[in-house]
Amino acid sequence: xxxxxxxxxxxxxxxxxxxxxxxxxxxxxxxxxxxxxxxxxxxxxxxxxxxxxxxxxxxxxxxxxxxxxxxxxxxxxxxxxxxxxxxxxxxxxxxxxxxxxxxxxxxxxxxxxxxxxxxxxxxxxxxxxxxxxxxxxxxxxxxxxxxxxxxxxxxxxxxxxxxxxxxxxxxxxxxxxxxxxxxxxxxxxxxxxxxxxxxxxxxxxxxxxxxxxxxxxxxxxxxxxxxxxxxxxxxxxxxxxxxxxxxxxxxxxxxxxxxxxxxxxxxxxxxxxxxxxxxxxxxxxxxxxxxxxxxxxxxxxxxxxxxxxxxxxxxxxxxxxxxxxxxxxxxxxxxxxxxxxxxxxxxxxxxxxxxxxxxxxxxxxxxxxxxxxxxxxxxxxxxxxxxxxxxxxxxxxxxxxxxxxxxxxxxxxxxxxxxxxxxxxxxxxxxxxxxxxxxxxxxxxxxxxxxxxxxxxxxxxxxxxxxxxxxxxxxxxxxxxxxxxxxxx
Length: 489
Hints:
This protein is of the alpha/beta class. It contains 22 helices and 13 strands. The chain has a seven-stranded parallel β-sheet with strand order 3-2-1-4-5-6-7. Strand 4, helix 7 (about 125-135) and strand 5 form a beta-alpha-beta unit. Helix 1 (about 15-30) packs parallel to helix 12 (about 255-265) and helix 8 crosses helix 11. The relative contact order is 0.12.
């Protein structure tokens, strides 16, 4: 009888922080389960991870199980990454030709380690599926977005056929979209659609890129989603029979990882683990945790617009006024290296004074720890999926200002379906910001929102405990990988 190879998984994320963050967590989960992992990054992001995180020392706990590799992204070293590169579509469209040869060479030269038995690639890096199949290697697609957004992409042909896409000139953005099965349970409007659905032509390059990658990802034998089965069941029930029979829902991944870390160490080193969750491309400023220690319980508004969003000077000033005028202390992540178009010159002195009195601004923060801090009572967020899940688990209500891609749908789910926050959408005038901050932090709606936060958070926490859906799905994934990824993955 032929002996099966030991499992060796190549994990290949899309070159953006939110994607790298989730897939590094999956890598650590697999290492905790004694599965060998090679983590493949672009040269640029590889250097930043080594510079700003403890990735080497963290994974040193798994001798012989974890290896870092990198390949070129095709951009010159002085390209204004990471925020600019991620949605430079001329680069996105050429990822296949740029990265496929290097990926192929890596798999060919993989002679000093156990052969790769499964490639887990980002769901918008589907050229990796084709390359893996050349070598007879099984593949799993990992979509790092919400399931509702992922399902909406599959529905695009029907939306075009029904006339919803492209949006008509002067369309009523609050008109409901009734042709997406599974979304009948909440009021899904045009303004809640993915940002690139709002196009003039269906041939729009951005629209075509994401939709093509979505359908191409179905060529993988299985799908991983960072979500909770019971929270996105209507959308999962559509994806499984139509596109993927085998779907591993493993979310919230950060919470599942924290639970397994504790379980495998019998509770030791929990404090060290808390500071080891940083998988980012910027240096964290941990001084904000000391500042939070000095603030009253549930009094602080945490503000972060993620790793990609770029605000105009006008938007910056309006948010700033709204926060100062709300009267609540605020911790604002004002991203180093380009979150705002333009310098902070000519900022009114009253705004700077507002920061001195009850604010704290940092370049990057340890977000999981911030959201779990006793002083944080609300989160003004761009509604990225990582941020949404982290806030949900921490029990912190959200004020959603979505920026792009899946964030419009995420914010609608938060505000309308789960009712664990408010959806500000494209509005960011100072009076709206002030009102929504006050509503979430201490207004009449807070009690109702906090009840929903507790209920939804409890569902997520149960999913990652032993016998929970995400816990059991992860065990099934590990078993499938150890059995050679035959049939199911």
